[in-house]
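Proteins fold reproducibly. Next comes an illustrative record:
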Amino acid sequence: MPESKNSKSKKVFLFLRIAFVLAGIAFGVHWLNTQQAWARLVQIFSCISIVVFAVALAIFTIGHVTVTLRWWLLLRAQAIFIPLSAAVKLYFLGWFYNNFMPGSVGGDLIRAWYVTRHTDKKLEAVLSVFVDRAIGLLTTLIIAAFFYTLFLRPEGRQISFQRPAISFSSLAQYWRFLLVALLVIAALLVTLYMVKPGRALLQKISSSVRLRILNITKKTKTSAILYCKKPLTILQAFVLTVFVQISTITGFWLLGRNLGIEASIKYYYVFFTLVWVIGTVPVSIGGAVVMEGTLAWLFVHFAGVDAESALALALCQRFVWMITSLPGAVIHLVGAHLPADLSLDLPDG
C-alpha cells in the first residue's frame, strides 16, 4: 500500500529535526575542541555535589506532580473525574516522550490520546491538555516579563536577539563547518525543488504548517468557550504554575551556585523561563540544542558567566529533565497509563 503524503511529510519533519540536533551537537563538540574547553568542562562537572543535584531532582519531580495537579483541576472543571494518580502517570508518560522519543508524536499528543481512554468526553479531555500547555506557556512568559521588568530593565540590560550571538570575527574560525552545513542544506532544498515529488512535498509541508496554525486557532476558540465559566479554576492553574516555575528555577540556581556560577538568581528567573518558551518551537527534539545554546548564550552575554560554566549549567538542566523522565518509561512498559477499570467520569466518593 503506498505511503500517504501526510506520513511522508511527518518523516521529513522528523528528519530535519534530528539533523538539526546532530548539527548542533557537532558544532558544540567542534567548539569545545577549538577552545580546548574539555578539561575545564570536566573540572566543573567534577565539582557537583551529589546532594545538591539530588535536591534539584527532587524539586523538579515535585514540580511535575504539582503541574499534574493543575491539569487534573482542568479535567475536573469539565466533569472528567479521573484519579489524580492516573493523571500523574499520564503526565510522566508524556514527559518521557518529550525527552526520549524522537518521533513526530510529542508528549502532549500522547497524553491527550491516553486520557481519552479514561473518559467518554473525548473532546473535553483533549482540550484540557491544550489548555494546560497554553496556561503553562502564558504563565512562563508573564514570569519572564515580570522579572525582566523588575530587575534587568532598570539596569539597562536589554535582551535582544537581533544581535548575532557570535561575531563575524569569531565565525571565521568555523567557516569550514558552516560552509559544509550550508551546502548540505542548500543541496537538500535544491534537490527537493528540482523533482516533481520534492516540490509537492515542500508544498505539502507548507500546507501542513498552515493547517496546524488553523487547528490551533480553532482549539483556542473552543477552549476559551469551555473554560470561560470556570475563572476560579484558571486562577488556581495560574497560581500553581507560578509556584512550580519559581521553585524549579530556584533549584537550578542552587545547582548553578554549586557549579561556581555567581550570577544573581534574578538572571535565572528571566533566562530559564524565556528559554522554556523558546524550547517549545518544534525545530529539534525536546528543544535539544536550542535550549542549551540559548541558555548558555544568555548567561555569557548578560550575566557575565564564562562559557564553560554556562554550558555546564545548561547541560545539567537537560540531565535533570532526562532523569526525571525515566518513570514515564516504566509506566509505559507496565501499562500503568491505561485505565484499571471501566468506571468513567464518576466523581470521587
The two ends are 51 Å apart (CA to CA). The CA atoms of residues 57 and 323 lie 8 Å apart. Residues 37-169+230-334 form one domain.
